[in-house]
């Protein structure tokens, strides 16, 4: 099985293969200059230059059990990662974007990073607190946690709109797993998709106009790897989504913020189907 790191043009639907590898890479996000992607593989992070594609390791110090929740700060100088080397459960750290010594931020575990506030002052993440899923933020300065939404349903995949006014996420609070958005303070939760698919990982574009996400077939439990899935796009204010691409993927395809800085493309990973 191979993994294919690709980009897709949202107007034409044209895909471009950046790198194909036998390694199980996941979750590409774009550097702020648009010159490279960052992916995870086998518990580590790598950059992939678009001009000279290759998996180049990023130094994460003693942390070697990273999952696929990672991403750059708005300024591009810091990298947030989720790792369980020290704690046994996912914990969020920040380190210099080019690699270096990680600094632990979340005091409680598990915590899975998903976004930065547009001003770079806070990190946004999924967590489990008191045995229930929720979405929280913590201050970059001291890790102080604010729980925004929490309860008996599943909450996951949060990502800010570029103006910081809304947080998109996915939840089954309305029944099936669908896309939602809420105000940045956790109020006014609104369901944004209600079709037959199981919808995960919404990512608002940098220009604020559209949201890309991953759609699983009806009845899918969780967000598994190895499924026939669709990359979809919908207006940021709601409306009918359109399918950009059907592919074999799932977990690892589109977990983290993945838009190019120009909002014309986003990155994803597709996998070869079992023979």
Automatic annotation (TrEMBL):
It comes from the Bacteria. Transmembrane segments: none annotated. Pfam families: PD40 (PF07676). InterPro entries: 6-blade_b-propeller_TolB-like, WD40. Belongs to the TolB family. This is Transporter. The lineage of its organism: Bacteria, Pseudomonadati, Pseudomonadota, Alphaproteobacteria, Rhodobacterales.
């Amino acid at each position: 099985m191979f993994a294919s790191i690709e980009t897709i043009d949202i107007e034409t639907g044209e895909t471009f293969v950046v790198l194909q590898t036998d390694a199980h890479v996941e979750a590409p996000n774009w550097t702020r200059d648009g010159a490279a992607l960052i992916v995870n593989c086998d518990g580590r992070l790598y950059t992939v230059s678009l001009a000279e594609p290759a998996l180049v390791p990023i130094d994460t110090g003693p942390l070697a059990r990273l999952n696929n929740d990672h991403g750059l700060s708005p300024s591009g100088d810091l990298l947030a990662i989720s790792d369980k080397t020290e704690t046994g459960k996912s914990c969020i750290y920040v380190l210099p974007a080019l690699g270096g010594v990680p600094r632990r931020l979340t005091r409680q575990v598990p915590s899975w990073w998903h976004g930065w506030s547009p001003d770079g002052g806070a990190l946004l993440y999924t967590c489990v607190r008191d045995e229930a899923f929720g979405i929280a933020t913590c201050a970059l300065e001291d890790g102080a946690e604010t729980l925004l939404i929490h309860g008996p349903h599943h909450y996951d995949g949060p990502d800010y709109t570029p103006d910081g006014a809304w947080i998109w996420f996915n939840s089954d609070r309305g029944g099936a797993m669908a896309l939602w958005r809420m105000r940045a303070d956790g109020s006014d939760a609104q369901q944004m998709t209600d079709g037959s698919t199981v919808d995960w990982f919404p990512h608002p574009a940098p220009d604020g106009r559209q949201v890309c996400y991953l759609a699983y077939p009806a009845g899918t439990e969780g967000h598994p790897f190895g499924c026939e899935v669709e990359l979809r796009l919908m207006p940021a204010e709601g409306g009918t989504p359109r399918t950009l691409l059907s592919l074999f993927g799932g977990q690892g395809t589109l977990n983290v913020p993945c838009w190019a800085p120009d909002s014309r493309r986003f990155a994803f990973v597709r996998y070869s189907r079992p023979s």
